[in-house]
Design brief:
The complex is a heterotetramer, with two copies of chain A and two copies of chain C. By secondary structure, chain A is mostly helical. Chain A has nine helices and two strands. Chain A has a single domain, classed as Serine Threonine Protein Phosphatase 5, Tetratricopeptide repeat (Alpha Horseshoe), CATH 1.25.40.340. In chain A, helix 1 packs antiparallel against helix 3 and helix 7 runs parallel beside helix 9. The chains are: A mainly alpha, C alpha/beta. Bound molecules: adenosine-5'-diphosphate (2 copies) and magnesium ion (4 copies).
Amino acid sequence: MNMVTIDKVKDWLFALSDIYSENREYLTELDSAIGDADHGINLDRGFSAVRAEIEKMSSGGVQGAAGQSPDSFSSLFKTVSMTLIKTVGGASGALLGTFFLRISQAVKSEKEMDGRELVSLFEKGVEGIKMRGHAEEGDKTMLDTWLPALRAMGDAASSGGSTGEILSAGLKSAEAGMNATKDMKALKGRASYLGERSIGHLDPGAVSSCLMIKAASEILR
Amino acid sequence: MNMVTIDKVKDWLFALSDIYSENREYLTELDSAIGDADHGINLDRGFSAVRAEIEKMSSGGVQGAAGQSPDSFSSLFKTVSMTLIKTVGGASGALLGTFFLRISQAVKSEKEMDGRELVSLFEKGVEGIKMRGHAEEGDKTMLDTWLPALRAMGDAASSGGSTGEILSAGLKSAEAGMNATKDMKALKGRASYLGERSIGHLDPGAVSSCLMIKAASEILR
Amino acid sequence: MKKLINLPGLVVSEALHGMQAAHPDLLKVFFDPNYIIRADAPLKGKTAVVSGGGSGHEPMHGGFVGRGMLHAACPGDVFTSPTPDQILAAVKAVDGGAGVLNIVKNYSGDVMNFEMAAELASDEGIKTESVVINDDVAVKDSLYTQGRRGVGATVLAEKICGAASERGYDLKKTAGICRAVNESSRSMGMALTSCTVPAAGKPTFQISENEMEIGIGIHGEPGRERLPLKKASEITGMMMDAVTSDLPYKKGDRVILMLNGMGGTPLIELYLLYGEVYKIAKSKGILISRKLIGNYITSLEMQGFSITLLKADDEMLGLWDDPVLTPALRWGI
Amino acid sequence: MKKLINLPGLVVSEALHGMQAAHPDLLKVFFDPNYIIRADAPLKGKTAVVSGGGSGHEPMHGGFVGRGMLHAACPGDVFTSPTPDQILAAVKAVDGGAGVLNIVKNYSGDVMNFEMAAELASDEGIKTESVVINDDVAVKDSLYTQGRRGVGATVLAEKICGAASERGYDLKKTAGICRAVNESSRSMGMALTSCTVPAAGKPTFQISENEMEIGIGIHGEPGRERLPLKKASEITGMMMDAVTSDLPYKKGDRVILMLNGMGGTPLIELYLLYGEVYKIAKSKGILISRKLIGNYITSLEMQGFSITLLKADDEMLGLWDDPVLTPALRWGI
Ligand SMILES: Nc1ncnc2c1ncn2[C@@H]1O[C@H](COP(=O)(O)OP(=O)(O)O)[C@@H](O)[C@H]1O
Ligand SMILES: Nc1ncnc2c1ncn2[C@@H]1O[C@H](COP(=O)(O)OP(=O)(O)O)[C@@H](O)[C@H]1O
Ligand SMILES: [Mg+2]
Ligand SMILES: [Mg+2]
Ligand SMILES: [Mg+2]
Ligand SMILES: [Mg+2]
């Protein structure tokens, strides 16, 4: 099984910074339809800060936001979490911050992990999202991307798939889950205030989470 | 010489009420270009009130705004003046109110006058406009319509023209004067604040005064 | 996008610099993280009252920091909840030992970020209580979702809790009156135009010349329904019906009323609307005891308005009347 | 046209009804002719201070009627000067025997209508003095025309003269301080968007997404020039240069500054602009001693702002600080 190295994870995080910058307008436009037109702006701000923070840490000696060296998964994820919490704001800041915080607390390996551990970390992270936001599948949130994706990843992992296979399976279900948010009525998040009028639009957080999984499937494989 | 009767004058005033109502948008648009977009609204409001006031007076027994019977020129013009002063507001309210006030003070005939007297009344009225507004010819105001018109009317009157001829001559010069305001830089009135930018637009008051003279030339002849 | 700004990304911090320059007597502004505190904070032994939320709703919240109202405000990015570290810093700066009341509007982001901040504060030994404001009757089916939005009642709660703190109410009692204010407040908003988030650069929604959005929130989000534009009397009628049919009141009850402009509504229209509101309240037997008419909780340059009614008891009215001296609300001083 | 109104022709009178309903403790509104007076007017032996002008500039003037400021205001139709009978009625209603100061903005219509009213008042044995405000430096060549427009300084003059009357200044002295205020005040305005006169139904001027009008007045009339939209810092720089190069001041002088929104400008932008103004004033050695930031003299829903500087002496500052209690300006009470 291909290993997920700390360098790959950094590449993934850097890629996210590019991806959210490129999709800043698209995500913001999705948020205009059923929210407050800031989702792309929030993620772009947050992940640029993540990039800057990691670069600062990596340029030798300088300590990350969490005051730790960047050379272990736990300190890297802690830094990502703290940076997102401090710079994103809004619902996604709290949720993604919690996601990476839980991952940083759960990670056991230091510089390399296998696909199975990665899936279990995503599971812990998503538990954090659920705990923080009290949302469930079907509420038209980022969970509608994450939960089906996790189930597919879990299945692929237990049937012995490679890291690449695990992530590809996850992406497929993530995309289906994301697309399914279009016909849902939002029950959590800002869009829930619209009631019926939220139907017919993709959930911006579901889309941004899908982009995150897509990048993972391309880079962490 | 055809006589100007009190009924013709009432017809003229009623016609003005129609004309300013029809030209309400046009005059307001002219005022948008170099003023505050209310000239047509002001005149429409004022002359509708004049119509209502005259109708009230004429419907027997009821007294006009000035507390006088409507059956003499002086009381009729006084009523027009008071009504305009009370309902128009702005520069044109003060100026046209003063115009008709001066006429009501100067008129000698009771129910009929000749063309010469009409011209002398217009002269008194316009003196009132000058006194009130301290403007001169060339300042890009209603005076640029009235002053050339008065000169032409005076000439026609002293060379023995009929009432119709007098008014037609007046209208011709009024139109030329009005058109000349287009290339003038405003020195009085709201448009004067624009400096050079007032050039290239007709003065709304010059246009509304020309409409007044045009109606006179058609009705008072 | 037409805005009087330098760069979209700098709007919030530059406006905060302006506030600091404008009101050094009333407040102190801190940057990175951004928060605003009363110039004389912390007040020893007094319950501190803190609020915060996205920027773009000015004067809320920064304009309500000062004597008799907020001890601190945490302005997030435009329409984006503040972050936990920001809230924590503000809480720490104003805690006078008697604990801190956080007044939070009911949006997932605000609730979660304040929750995280409260956890951090408690780690540092600071007592906090949070009251979540949810007065917006425009939200339907609120039983099955995360509930209603917090809107206009926030302003009234901030004034009343600020006065309560000034009077020496302890944390529990201040939180109690905050909850009571929230429970007897109802609001509803509408918009004629959208607003433009500076960083987004274009209007959040499109709306044609003869349409209006009824039941909007304060973030340019779509409302309950889009309808043909109606007369002021009809719009006010619809909104007052929605608000009063949900407000637990009986004839003769006194209310504090806020007729709030969304930022781009001229005052002449707000007064015209107040004339309509007044007639309707009278016909329903509601006594408008106190009122605010103006821009208090806005959505950038949006045209529109909201109505908030708070059925007030003697205690609330007394606290309302207590002196207040902030950039945006001032009386008795 | 998107407005919260019933009928274009009713806007002014309905808004006045709303004002009456909102502030019965502060003012009384009369109709046909329309005017607003202090609830406790006439004040025996006190110089009465009256102002007026077109509507659409709210809160000016009606919002400044009350203790320590105007005794009466005469609102004309939207952007249309009030009529002489209207002004006369207001003057008669507030004259307390000590005469009446009319504060008039320098527009032909206002000047002439107030002049006619003064003639009528004098016929009725009422002493009046008129001071014409003309602080707008945007007007070029003012020597050869009817001069400059009256804009922001009007608000400052109304506050200071209201306080002067309260202190017992006689008519001559009140008029004197009014003239002094006018002489040491300068203003300049700009707009991002046009406004729409309700009865006209469409915007007074067209302006594209990347343009601004510099040197506008308060009636949606075109300004000194149309320029490409610039950054807030550059716009503020241009405007402060225009104002200060005309203001007779020297380093270290104190000013009362008004940073005024045109009606549709969000407060977050006004504070951002204040940050720029503050830096510039500082660099020029001008001391901002007192300030107003908000919507005080507006053009309906126009987006834009104006800056007014009044070089103030001790007397003016003292009068400024005196208590005031009106719908739109309140302190010390
Ligand atoms: N309670 C929640 N649980 C899970 N996801 C949520 C919750 N609330 C909001 N979200 C997600 O957050 C996204 C919005 O994020 P963002 O626009 O950045 O924040 P905000 O809604 O505060 O403006 C939504 O599209 C949704 O996917
Ligand atoms: N001082 C003046 N003398 C003569 N005419 C004037 C003067 N000031 C303004 N006017 C005329 O009044 C017209 C504007 O009238 P109107 O728009 O009704 O009033 P306002 O300018 O007060 O809005 C101008 O077009 C001009 O012809
Ligand atoms: Mg959002
Ligand atoms: Mg005009
Ligand atoms: Mg947001
Ligand atoms: Mg006018």
